[in-house]
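Escalated from tier 1: protoporphyrin IX containing FE holo job.
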Amino acid sequence: MARANAARLESPAVWALCAAPLLLIFYWGFTSQLTANPVEFVLRDLGLWGLRFLCLTLAVTLLAKYANLPWLMRYRRRIGLWAFAYVALHLTVYLGAAHEFDWAEIGADIAKRPYITIGMAAFALLIPLAVTSAAAVRRRMKPRSWRALHRLVYVIAIMGVAHYFLLVKADIRSPLLYAAIVATLLGARLVASARPRKARAAG
Ligand code: HEM
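Tier 2 regenerated the structure:
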């Protein structure tokens, strides 16, 4: 009974946790706490949450598959979609609030700044992952192709970190931290998937 109640609360709790950073931005907006440069603040906060949710998606897959926590798999899609949402909002703020949809200026920025070029490429790669995460689309794909496509999330996370590295001016501690997190998650995945199936089955 207690387990059933906990399970019922689990899903809304995951929703609330995923939405919390966005709600916090709205709260800061309504209470005039978005610093002297609100556009930059919101742009950066959304970018950072996009990267955090990408890392979380990788961690969930790893823990569900290799740390014997299969129930986590229920939330992988949702967390991945939140990563997409944060990055899409990050891009929207860049296009709308920072550049007022001035496409000539935006095109020049993409061509001129390598961190924008990489960010755009990472976002473009995220789109097929978001589209094929829909159950109906997934059912139509071969499981092998679907898995191969969704392994792109590692490439996207690496591109997100590269984007971050290239945009910081002096203090590289934060991008370095995310580089270490992504490297650890990727390393752990490679080690775990290299373990022979038999050994995994034995525990
Ligand atoms: C997977 C895709 C992306 C990820 C993970 C990501 C992540 C980030 C992160 C972590 C930051 C730094 C936040 C901070 O300083 O605290 C950032 C900043 C920024 N990103 Fe992205 N981003 C992505 C895509 C994009 C795209 C598509 C654009 C626009 C075309 C973009 C434009 C920017 C800009 C303009 C900044 C702020 C630069 C500055 O303040 O000097 N990003 N992003």
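The pocket of protoporphyrin IX containing FE is lined by residues 40, 43-44, 47-48, 50-51, 54, 87, 90-91, 94, 116, 119-120, 122-123, 126, 156, 160, 163-164, 167 (CB under 6 Å).
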